Amino acid sequence: KLKGLVDAAGNYHLTLAENRILYNEIQDLKGNIRVYCRIRPFLPGQSKRQTTIEYIGENGELVVSNPLKQRTDAHRLFKFNKVFSPATNQEEVYLDTQPLIRSVLDGYNVCIFTYGQTGSGKTYTMSGPNVSSKEDWGVNYRALNDLFQTSQSRKSSIIYEVGVQMIEIYNEQMFFVSFDLHTLGIWSPSKPNGLAVPEASMHSVKSTTEVLELMNIGLRNRAVGSTALNERTSRSHSVLTVHVRGTEIKTNAVLHGSLHLVDLAGSERVDRSEATGDRLREAQHINKSLSALGDAIFALAQKNAHVPYRNSKLTQVLQSSLGGKAKTLMFVHLNPDVDSYSETISTLKFAQRFSGVELGAPQTHREGRDIKELMEQVTVFSHCPLFPEKSSLRKIRRLSVCGYLRVMAMVLSIV
């Protein structure tokens, strides 16, 4: 009888896993933003405190309550794609995101970012507490390591090139990490559709070791400060972007994918953080940019024609991930301490708005040989004046008649 119960329990968990896979596939088709919730364990000295986490379900259910207030409506139920308990380790968290990250090699754009109050464990999830220990690696390091290993296993059919950029948004100013000089350079210009980082800030990488070195530079340079809520807290939004270009050996087709790994600065209540002076100004900029992100998400959820991306540098950077055909995942982080109950509820409500957003089915970015040749031809025409000189005419004559007509059609459609 006991064996029968064990078998039944095993089948139940297997069914849950299969249902979750199917659910994720449906979400991919609809383009829903996936939301994972991770609950931080109590820190040393907090172990005897009461917790606001009452129940964690296997299907993404989460019940929170304030044990200091005994009311009938004190229990709040939330539902997400997945809820990670305080006992969940770094590897278990990454395994749930692995299929999403590997799709970058197939030409998809993927964005993973963290949200939560100051000190709730966002940087722990993304970077980890100790880079030298592989067990402690966060999503960033595991993702890059995984991409390199997978690209190596495909090298007989696809040749991959990988480039890395690191951006920091601090007090609504954009900085990029200059890996060669090991310093931060300021950068501020914007474009109508999002922000584009100078190509000079992209660094070609060929191994996980190189990536670890570059990311350590970025972490050392990142703006940090001390508040009453967290002795060492990030005061800036950090965006690590991985650009992947794969060339198929047989067809010469090219795949373009990108992975945005975003560690948002912590949201906080100014009255609790006891911030003054520079720390207060930083907190105001952080909260303003996070509010702008919430406004953009609300507009997307309502399917508004206008989405206010330009209200913040942060939303401009994330525009291609939120408004484009990308696969997007948000980690929402919670501090289980009773004193953080109001921030916990605010964070969970924000996350619920995200989970209802449909971005449209993600699209792969693949250029066949014909498209690649046409784009090169369009580049030739784009440099020709209205009345081409003889040198330009000679270039045009070298094009096939068919190619010329196709290019002209594309040029006219662009104009």
UniProtKB/TrEMBL annotation:
Family recorded in the similarity comment: Belongs to the TRAFAC class myosin-kinesin ATPase superfamily. Kinesin family. KIN-14 subfamily.
PANTHER family in the record: KINESIN-LIKE PROTEIN KIN-14J, KINESIN-LIKE PROTEIN KLP-3
Protein name (record): Kinesin-like protein
PROSITE patterns: KINESIN_MOTOR_1, KINESIN_MOTOR_2
Keyword Coiled coil: yes
A single BP term in Gene Ontology: microtubule-based movement
The keyword Coiled coil is assigned to this record: yes
Keywords annotated in UniProt: ATP-binding, Coiled coil, Microtubule, Motor protein, Nucleotide-binding
Residues forming coiled coils: none
CC terms in the record's Gene Ontology section: microtubule
Residues that coordinate or bind ATP: 116-123
GO molecular function, one term: microtubule motor activity
Start and end residues of each Kinesin motor domain: 32-357
